[in-house]
Amino acid sequence: MLSSITLLAGAATLLTTVVADTTFPVGVLGTGTMGVTNPPKPTLGTAINQTSMARLLTVNSVDDFCLFAPPTPQAISDSEAFEVAWCTKPRNNARLIPDGTITGVSFLKTDFYVQVMGYGDLTKINIPAGDFGGELDPHGALGDGNPVGGNVTSNITGSDQNFAEWMLYIGNGQFCMRVCTNANSTYSAAAMCWHELDLMGCGFVMPGNYNNNGTFESCEADVAYPPGWYPTATVNGTPVFSTFAQRFTGTLAGGSVYTVGDLSTPASAFFTPSSSNCVTTSTIANGINLANPPTGVPTVGGGQNSNGGGSGPTQTSSNNGGSKPTGGNSAAGTNSASNANNSNKPSSARGGNANTQFYPLIALWSALAGVGAVVLFH
Q: Where is the signal peptide (predicted)?
């Protein structure tokens, strides 16, 4: 069943950083320190280094974004703690995504987050064919982040900012990433980038237009509800929600088995937000042949083959009107389509007060084998 939700005010441990900007609501910007492998700030035009261990992602546009992927060929589930940054352009001391890797992208800008969804031959960034991947976020099982020291920036709000909350699903030829850039008293950045529904997949957690393979588009979009939130009523002008908790069964150190989460699983997110003002481009290729970089492009270490090519012209496309995700398997789960209505959607409130959620603590009380309260951190 779905449980009711109450937003709690509290402080979360954040791993990303730089200087906090007071024009942003509480909980939106990172307040920790840059990962030790990372440059001090996002930088375009750094040397190409296909052995880099840097873990600084930037998500700026349809042709300027980065993904986390393994440093050597291996499953995401085996490498989530030490993934490295791969970028579409030479930047952040990161590895360069070879031309021809990404075959389709939809880039969405909303009032609360920026989102990038796409497809490609991810074997070119060391994700094995058929690997159903996993979910990466700034928290991780131990609170150190997956990957440890991973940071994410964007200039979507007008200047480079380090954002505290983000999530990336990647694997099996698909990826989706959301960076949460705003908050208000109802929708915190932590809620908008809720990271505990990894089995549900891209279409459920980050609804949008997944009919984009073969297309590169940038759109403005309405705001989705936080992952797993379903409006049930409005009380004194304030929406009330129920929430879905992914079911999980585990074993305690003493051998006791426990189960948390809901028995029933919703078929989809509450609705798929409409997008508008879409612009397409023919390619997001960087034009760099990694086997033989052109003169003037600094390199570090070895490289790998890639196709050449440059950025193509843009054209305006029609609104997609809330396109449904395609069916089939998606990164870290199964895509879900949605036909629900668009009422009671979040509205922008830049500069408003934000309630920051406590990260969930699931208390399991057991009398077996003298075990007391067990708290699992997610």
A: 1-20
Give the H or E element holding residue 318.
Answer: none
38 contacts 92 by C-beta, under 8 angstroms: yes
Can you give the C-alpha Rg of the chain in angstroms? 20
* Tokens, residue 205: 């957690």
Q: Are 173 and 119 in contact (CB under 8 A)?
A: yes
Distances from the Cα of 300 to the Cα of 46, 48, 115, angstroms: 10, 6, 31
The amino acid at residue 169 is Y
Q: How far is 279 from 274, CA to CA, in rounded Å?
A: 15
DSSP code string of 225-237? PPTTEEEEEEETT
Alpha-carbon distances, residue 85 vs 80, 213, 246 (angstroms): 12, 22, 28
Q: Which residues contact 185 (CB under 8 A, 6 or more apart)?
A: 7, 349, 352, 353, 354, 355
Helix (H, G, I), strand (E, B) or coil at 281: strand
List the structure tokens of 160: 């480079």
Task: Tell me the pLDDT tens digit for each residue of 35-80.
Answer: 889 999 999 999 999 999 999 999 999 999 999 999 999 999 999 9
